[in-house]
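Lab meeting, action items carried over

1. Structure of the two-component assembly. Owner: GW. Status: complete.
Input record:
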Amino acid sequence: MSNEDVDSNRQPSDVTLSFRATTANVALARTMAAAMAARAHLTIDQIEDVRLAIDEAVSQLVNDCDEQTHVHCDFTETAGTLVIQTKATTRSGQPPATDTFSWLVLAALVDEVTAGADNGLVHLELCITRPASVTV
Amino acid sequence: MAQVVTAHTSTGGWTSAKRDRARTLFTELANLPADSPAHKVVRDELIEMHMPLVEHLARRYRDRGESQEDLTQVGMLGLIKAVDRFEVARGLEFSTFATPTILGEIKRHFRDHAWAVHIPRSLQERNIEINHAIESLTRELNRPPTIAELARRTKLQDAEVLEAMDAGRAYTAASIDAAAEASGDGDSPYDRIGGDDLALEALELRESFRPLLAALPERERQIVMLRFFKNQSQSQIAEQLGISQMHVSRLLATSLAQIRAGMSDN
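Predicted assembly:
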């Protein structure tokens, strides 16, 4: 878990999705994530895993947010790796605990998951890379 | 029911001895406290001995595009309900009583999940075609295909493949309810995944997590264990259980949602 500025040294995202922190909106993040994963030439297994992972990550944030808050999802693809950063200003302002089932789920679904918090802005990054055998 | 079937799978193969045994068990069940271990043993035996009835009824719906295993699984919900509701004193034959309940669950499954109702035919056909392409490409490539590879194989647009896969995965709130119902108060007679797992032990919240895992229907629990504690891929799980990868994904999504809901209730 890093405490560095979440946007430092990060290239601008390809796509950003921003929505009010309601459960109904989680589906939007899921659909967008699947579309981005397909575009990044991830395998269908990975696409499904990304859908489940963003579901988990965003649900976690939404549960800890007031409804007026916005959740942001940044999607960036570089050289076969899809990076999804989700962030929101939550009530607790705490990054998710890593000894929970939820964290275990995230860690199992993507190649790398990191989380942190900065002045109440909680962020969670998911990275997933397509297999080397995929030629595009 | 005049067809020739083996005794194991046919309701017609029921001997009067078996019928008597069921009757005895139901009488016993009625006299046992609902939360006693003995009640559970008798109930399990009743469920198990009537599984052939479910299989028999599920077979009526073969060739309708849903796997036999899925239909048997939902039929089991009906059987369990019927076992719990049956009153032996009324003098009705259990199979007579249970059949409408089991068929009801199977029909509900078609209504909630199955095509015809919600999804235009062309999408259904695409979905079947894509499922076939997934199978053959997974074999050829030795890994699951990408959307682009599927599009090339099926001569569809990338977006069409995604759309069809979304439709294939579409699950309804009803299926989450069904999962909750299925957990009920007892265990189903399916095989269990044995033993605890290190990853599970490491969870700080395992005490609150365990009952949530236990509340999942057997197959969903198995899938959650295989995916998150045995680190198997969705494709591997699909192959092992003889269901489609899309279905594994659908069951994982509903299971995780159910666990999440349970966690936030705590």
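2. GW to write a short summary for the group page. Key points so far: The interface with chain A takes residues 134, 141-150, 158, 161-162, 165-166, 199, 202-205, 209, 227-228, 231, 233-235, 245-246, 248-249, 252-253, 256-257, 259-260, 263-264 of chain B (CB under 8 Å). The CA atoms of residues 32 and 174 of chain B lie 33 Å apart.
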